[in-house]
Amino acid sequence: VSKGWVPQQGDIEAAFLSGVGLDRPLYLRAPPMGLPEIPGVMPALAGGTLLRALKSVYGLNQAPADFNLRHAEVMFDHGAVDSALAPRTLFYWFDKAGDIIGQVATHVDDDLFAGTDWWIQNVVPKIRREFHYSKWNFGEAPIMHLGRNITVHIKHKPTDYIEMDQAHYALGLRQIALNPDRKRQTEEPLTSVEVSALRAGTGKQAWLNRTRPDLAIRIAMQQQSMSDPKTKHILEHNAIVVAAVRDSFVKVKFVPTDWHDDRLRVYCVGDSAFMNVGPDKTSSQAGYIIGTGLDE
After folding, report:
1. Containing H/E element for 152?
2. Residues 219-236 pLDDT 10s
3. Residue 242: left if φ>0, alpha if ψ -120 to 50, beta else—which one?
4. pLDDT of 19-75, one tens digit each?
5. pLDDT value at position 277?
6. What does 184-250 look like in DSSP terms, one character per residue?
7. Concatenated DSSP letters for 81-128?
């Protein structure tokens, strides 16, 4: 926002097929119904066709790592510098004076691009030729990224801002059904089916941490309970769903910052109020907020 850059988004089609080459022979057969065409990758194939995989495919344990390696190599080949805080996830480009001119943030096969006009026109097209991006958003419409709805309001004015919310994602969360008698048995162990439902539901709730710090501690405590889950943890799961839906309108707003203002300070707030929680007094949970603000 401070740079006045409009983010763009690209989704890589059949990402794992763009990874590094395999170090061993691997053969597979097309399913009976055949395989549809992937434009720019492969033609349609008849059922039973025998194939030799040249690169990692879905289902191989090393497939995500192989693609991540190839993705990073492409970024480096085109001048990127890896982030020390988020290796292979956040990449920067700098000019000869050391000023940042572009950046890419990635999650598996979903890339976000932002930079100067020169960088967008000269670097991004080279990256797009390396991968087959099936979807591309130039930032003119809201961007859906990892369950987050990103709305860009950049007109190169002091009032520019970017808003981020997870309303659509929150409204898709579901409670786990319990009959009235089961609800009263709060200390009862869960069945295998209930454990699976709770684990899946808690995993989905964890994505809310990006915009809902008010729910972060509750979700973290739920994750710690998975070693000995009980009915009360399903009740808490359902309560988190209610809170997420009720306040789904909550947004995070990013506004421009003058990084050359001498009054600008970095601050850190720590909260250890939840230290040594739980009946065994061995679980710890602390929260930290790191931000910037004017020294006023």
Report:
1. strand 148-153
2. 988 998 898 999 999 999
3. alpha
4. 777 778 888 899 999 999 888 778 999 999 998 887 777 777 777 888 888 899 999
5. 52
6. H-TTPBPPHHHHHHHHHHHHHHHGGGGT-HHHHHHHHHHHHGGGS-BHHHHHHHHHHHHHHHHTTT-
7. EE-SSSTTTEEEEE-TTS-EEEEEEEETTEEEEEE-HHHHHHTHHHHH
pLDDT in tens, 150-206: 888 888 888 899 999 999 999 999 999 999 998 999 999 999 999 999 999 999 999
- Dist CA 273 CA 221 (whole Å): 13
Contact 212, 166 (CB under 8 A): yes
The pTM score is 0.71
Least Cα distance to 127 among 10, 276, 225, 248 occurs for: 10
* Residue from 206, 214, 210 nearest 237 by CA: 206
Lay out the sheet containing 143-145: strands in order across. 143-145, 148-153, 161-165, 251-254
- β pairing state of 81-82 and 50-52: unpaired
Q: Which amino acid is at 45?
A: L
> Above 90 in pLDDT, residue 148?
no
Distance CA 286, CA 277 (A): 10
Helix, strand, coil percentages (3-state) for the chain, rounded to 5, are 30, 25, 40
